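User: quick one, sequence for these tokens?
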């Protein structure tokens, strides 16, 4: 016996019929389809099966036994369709399985029968394109179905560059559920894909009007889920309604918090959710921190939220949901730099949708204090993930909610806005915010906050190429007298960066190793990875390429594990530079393409420019001069909004080398002199030396001292 299990509208019946058609010649006595839609009693399963098989009824004989007698020597396939509404009839199937070794049963149900010998096949949603992946929609099951049904309803419907991403998003928002996709595609008769997508926030109202020959429960998406809801016990309905407030994931602890006033016992909640999993209303996700973790499809969640509103329980559930995630985020802030860093980053990553939903609820209920606290706590996470737009949006919201512009909270948020600005490459803006925050902290006479801000000012100065200023910040008593382990380590790392730029390799190594020791003691994996990355750079500068690669490869898996895209791109760039140095140009392109794709995703133009420069250098090495020039010009275009930048100087150097190679010496000198001016401004000694070498190779050039 095989059970096809899945939520309503997932295509279980259609799949069962296709399997039967494919295997029809393997069943000596035929294939039989038994529709149990109208059956409500266990005996009805036997009566319906007997009628389909053409077995005459005998009033004096139990219909279960009657069917068993006929099946005992048969070789056939029986499809028992829509079994979930009569689950107590499992014993009927058990009897037939024991008495009819030649008979195979294919059951469709929203939950397993849970009997011995049952093979469960979970019917999953149709395959979907990933975000931004709308190039060839026909290769994905969900979008292929939408296009097929749309064309059936409107023969002149076509997919083009304009509507392909919209079709992909519609199918994604509908969770890849075949029934939902078919009902959406039917709307093409009246409205275009963009109009359909616009209305998907009310999908249960939109997705109606299925074909007349479909069962009533499949004519609208709401009716399909109604069918499942009506079969639930009351306690299951309570759990389903309340957990529908979650977005993206449901931990057991979070579910207990939301259900607190209705069901307090942990095991009752766990059993209830497991029952909803069995009934295909909730699905299991990979465990989180060794604890069970669940998900709910958007369409099913929307139905549950409607029921929650009807029960007048919505506000209470939303407030408890927001309270739980406020607590989670605050605990994460306390653990950010310590040994629990990994655990909390995993929790924040898995619950991003829940956290966003909770913050919106707190704004809606005018709980400004909580919004400010959550924003403060999440800034390091957002910067780590290079989610700069999200970070800026919430910082601006939180700053507006600060009742006093000179308060400690306002100063913290201003400092974090400066941190965000330098992380995104807006160094002038960073100096503005950080300077303002430092004045506020000094007025408030708080030492740690002042030291933290000055660390960011030092980093900003460093990235602007102002190494003397950066060193001055690092040696300011505000920082040197602070005994916080992470401040001490950050100062050592920055001083190491400065000594690296001065080419004082031994001194930089010593400073990095001291910082590494502090990070290891503090259990800060991420900063430990950054030190390995920087030690790799020192080895690269010494020409020890194998040692450099080993250090970079120590850093990369840690940063990949944490999805720390901001610093991971540094490591990818370094590996790309190493490949260029060893003339492994195709490998360099692969690494810089990773940087480019991630940076484009985060709209980070500085890093995108850096990636295009690296790709341009690789194509130059391959003598693909046209491609090299295109990439170098693209780099300039990406970073020109920031004024003179290191990336612009490097792009000009590549363009100068291309002009030199094509004997356009006037153009070469113009680009190389621009590169020399910019790179000298940022004290990029190695890059400046490359430019000087290029200028020296141009015959007759007299501009060198």
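Assistant:
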């Amino acid at each position: 016996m095989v059970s096809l299990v899945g939520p309503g509208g997932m295509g279980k019946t259609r799949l069962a019929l296709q399997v039967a058609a494919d295997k029809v010649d393997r069943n000596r006595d035929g294939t039989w389809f038994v529709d149990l839609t109208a059956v409500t009693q266990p005996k009805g399963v036997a009566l319906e099966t007997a009628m389909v098989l053409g077995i005459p009824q005998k009033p004096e004989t139990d219909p279960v036994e009657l069917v068993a007698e006929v099946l005992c020597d048969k070789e056939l396939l029986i499809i028992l369709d829509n079994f979930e509404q009569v689950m107590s009839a499992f014993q009927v199937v058990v009897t037939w399985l024991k008495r009819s070794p030649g008979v195979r049963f294919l059951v469709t149900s929203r939950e397993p029968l849970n009997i011995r010998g049952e093979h469960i096949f979970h019917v999953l949603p149709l395959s979907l394109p990933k975000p931004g992946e709308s190039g060839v929609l026909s290769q994905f099951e969900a979008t292929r179905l939408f296009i097929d049904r749309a064309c059936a309803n409107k023969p002149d419907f076509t997919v083009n560059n304009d509507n392909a991403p919209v079709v992909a998003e519609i199918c994604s928002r509908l969770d890849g559920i075949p029934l939902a996709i078919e009902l959406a595609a039917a709307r093409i008769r009246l409205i275009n894909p963009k109009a359909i997508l616009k209305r998907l926030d009310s999908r249960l109202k939109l997705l109606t009007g299925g074909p007349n020959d479909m069962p009533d429960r499949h004519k609208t998406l709401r009716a399909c889920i109604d069918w499942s809801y009506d079969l639930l016990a009351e306690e299951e309905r309570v759990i389903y309604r309340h957990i529908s407030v979650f977005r993206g994931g449901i931990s057991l602890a979070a579910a207990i918090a939301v259900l607190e006033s209705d069901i307090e016992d942990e095991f009752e909640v766990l059993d209830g959710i497991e029952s909803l999993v069995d009934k295909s209303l909730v699905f299991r996700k990979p465990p989180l921190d060794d604890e069970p973790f669940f998900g709910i499809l958007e369409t099913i969640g929307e139905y549950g939220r409607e029921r929650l509103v009807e029960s007048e329980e919505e506000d209470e559930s939303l407030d408890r949901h927001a309270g739980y995630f406020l607590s989670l985020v605050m605990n994460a802030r306390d653990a950010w730099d310590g040994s629990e860093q990994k655990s909390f980053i995993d929790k924040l990553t898995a619950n991003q949708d829940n956290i966003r939903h909770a913050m919106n609820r707190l704004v809606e209920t005018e709980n400004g204090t909580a919004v400010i606290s959550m924003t403060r706590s999440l800034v390091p996470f957002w910067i780590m993930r290079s989610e700069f737009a999200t970070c800026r949006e919430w910082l601006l919201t939180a700053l507006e909610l600060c009742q006093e512009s000179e308060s400690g909270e306002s100063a913290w948020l201003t400092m974090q806005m400066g941190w965000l600005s330098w992380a995104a490459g807006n160094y002038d803006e960073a100096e503005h915010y950080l300077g303002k925050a430092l004045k506020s902290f000094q007025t408030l006479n708080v030492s740690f906050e002042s030291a933290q801000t000055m660390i960011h000012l030092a980093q900003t100065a460093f990235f602007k190429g102002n190494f003397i200023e950066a060193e001055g910040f690092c040696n300011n008593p505000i920082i040197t007298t602070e005994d916080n382990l992470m401040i001490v380590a950050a100062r050592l790392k920055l001083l190491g960066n400065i000594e690296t730029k001065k080419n004082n390799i031994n001194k930089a190594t010593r400073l990095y190793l001291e910082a590494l020791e502090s990070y290891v003691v503090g259990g800060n994996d991420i900063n430990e990875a950054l030190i390995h990355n920087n030690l790799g750079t020192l080895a690269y500068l010494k020409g020890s390429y194998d040692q450099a690669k080993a250090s970079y490869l120590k850093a990369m898996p840690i940063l990949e594990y944490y999805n720390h895209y901001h610093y991971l791109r540094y490591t990818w760039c370094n590996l790309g530079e190493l490949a260029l140095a060893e003339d492994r140009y195709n490998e360099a392109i692969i690494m810089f393409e990773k940087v480019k794709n991630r940076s484009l995703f985060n709209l980070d133009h500085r890093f995108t420019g850096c990636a295009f420069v690296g790709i341009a250098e690789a194509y130059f090495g391959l003598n693909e001069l046209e491609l090299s020039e295109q990439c170098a010009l693209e780099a300039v275009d990406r970073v020109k909004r920031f004024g003179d930048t290191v990336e612009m100087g490097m792009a000009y150097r590549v363009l100068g080398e291309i002009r030199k190679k094509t004997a356009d010496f006037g153009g070469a000198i113009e680009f190389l002199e621009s590169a020399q001016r910019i790179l000298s401004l940022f004290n990029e000694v190695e890059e400046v030396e490359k430019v000087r070498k290029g200028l020296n190779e141009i015959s007759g050039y007299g501009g060198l001292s």
